[in-house]
Specification:
Strand order of the largest sheet: 5-6-1-7-8
Radius of gyration: 24 Å
Shape: globular
Order of helices and strands: EHEEHHEHEEHEHEHHHHHEHEEHEH
Number of domains: 3
Largest sheet: 5 strands, mixed
Distance between the termini: 53 Å
Number of helices: 14
Number of strands: 12
Structural class: alpha+beta
Oligomer: single chain
CATH superfamily of the largest domain: Reverse transcriptase/Diguanylate cyclase domain
Strand content: 15-25%
CATH architecture of the largest domain: 2-Layer Sandwich
Length: about 425
């Protein structure tokens, strides 16, 4: 019998800030979205104050100040680095691991003699090494381990770890698990299940008529039901499939009218996507470029999108940036206040599957490959955008707002904590 654990960091973004300022522990902390628009993460204390996910920050700032809430702009470099450290520690202690998101992973615990004791030691290790609080749910399927994790985090008796391998314990907990807490169900589907089928709990879903579920909700809901009943349907993905598309689209910190500024932003996003493309050993044969105004603005609106097919699939930042910026000219309409530009690479193929360009010499292709390898090596060692195309600007006027920044404690030498 396979035993699966789900390790999930508690209020991950907020916990990352608390690592470097212990005075924040026990206080309500929230993290804001891009441009400080809305709440995207809350500490336990903030949740108890009734702060909701997605609350618009500028409409609630006065209330937050009155409640003593500490708020931060998003610090993705910090979150990514802490996540990497936590995941590497977990990987060193288990046989196999599926990283599901930045703050959670599934692990194979089959054959572990004392699984509860092992998980409690691992939980203590993650706190001792990284000051990262986690919850661990243990069961026989992914969906059940998710339920166990939810209970582990919300039950003082569990103390952060819950073993839900035994069948009788599964049935008891499922009977007390609201349907909207089941992995993959969510609010909208749970409302349909309650209204259409009278299913209120996870136990009800596990016992539901599979034929009806198939007809009304599809095969994924059937698999979820079977998983809740103890039948494994979702395997651990130890070697995730490469991305079928890679994209980036961000809101600007201010409205942008000039084409050259839009091209600066697009070049920045395209360069980052090209880096991801090479990291998975792929090239792209096509791309889609878009730009748009805000639906909340009173001025003239515009949403433009242009697709581009490359003659030869490429992973060269220079080629991709130039193609994207040329495409943007076709989507651009002057005298508009643009709030966003985006790029999506499609038709990805592995480098080994890309046919050679009949009109390019082998030396040119080799030089391109070596140039990109050098670019990635230098930027990895000395920091992103140490080397970049001329269109990329170090401190652009359109960059996202971050009025409440925090130091990059682990990724910038100048931000290292000093002990006195």
């Amino acid at each position: 019998m396979q035993v699966i654990g789900l390790i999930d960091c508690n209020s991950f973004y907020c916990s990352c800030h608390q690592i470097f300022d212990p005075r924040l522990r026990g206080r309500p902390v929230v993290v804001l979205s891009n441009n400080d628009g809305a709440v995207v993460a809350r500490s336990k204390e903030a949740k108890l104050l009734g702060i909701k996910m997605g609350e618009v920050f500028h409409l609630n700032r006065k209330r937050y100040d009155e409640l003593g809430v500490v708020y931060f702009s998003s610090n993705y470099a910090l979150y990514g680095d802490i996540s990497d450290r936590v995941m590497r520690t977990i990987a060193s202690e288990v046989v196999s691991q599926e990283i599901y998101s930045v703050d959670e992973c599934f692990v194979d615990l089959s054959g572990v003699p004392d699984v509860d004791g092992f998980c409690r030691r691992l939980k203590a290790m993650l706190w001792q090494r990284h000051s990262m609080p986690v919850g661990i749910g243990i069961s026989t399927t992914k969906t059940l381990s998710k339920v166990a994790n939810w209970r582990a985090k919300n039950s003082p008796r569990a103390a952060g770890v819950l073993d839900l391998v035994a069948r009788d314990r599964q049935q008891l907990l499922l009977a007390h698990t609201p349907i909207d807490e089941v992995w993959g169900v969510g609010r909208k589907l749970s409302e349909r299940l309650k209204t259409d089928l009278g299913i209120e709990t996870a136990l009800g879903l596990s016992r539901a008529d599979r034929g009806v579920l198939q007809d009304q909700y599809g095969v994924v809901m059937v698999r979820t039901s079977r998983e809740l009943d103890g039948e494994q349907c979702f395997d651990l993905e130890l070697s995730p499939e490469p991305s079928k598309m890679i994209g980036s689209s961000k809101m600007f910190g201010c409205r942008v009218r000039e084409l050259h500024l839009l091209q600066q932003a697009l070049a920045t996003y395209t360069s980052r996507c090209a880096e991801k493309l090479r990291a998975q050993g792929a090239r792209c044969k096509a791309m889609s470029v878009s730009l748009s105004t805000s639906p909340h603005d009173s001025g003239p609106a515009h949403h433009g999108q242009v697709g581009v097919k490359l003659a030869v699939a490429s992973d060269d930042t220079r080629i991709l940036v130039e193609a994207a910026c040329m495409a943007l000219e076709g989507a651009f309409v002057p005298d508009r206040d643009y709030c966003r530009v985006g790029i999506v690479f499609t038709h990805l193929e592995h480098t080994s599957q890309t046919p050679a360009d009949l009109f390019a010499c082998a030396e040119t292709a080799e030089q391109q490959s070596r140039a990109m390898e050098a670019l990635d090596t230098i930027n990895k060692r000395f920091g992103r955008n140490t080397l970049h195309t001329a269109r990329v600007v170090a401190d652009p006027a359109w960059k996202m707002r971050a009025q409440f920044p925090s130091p990059h404690f682990t990724t910038r030498l100048e931000d290292l904590l000093q002990v006195r």
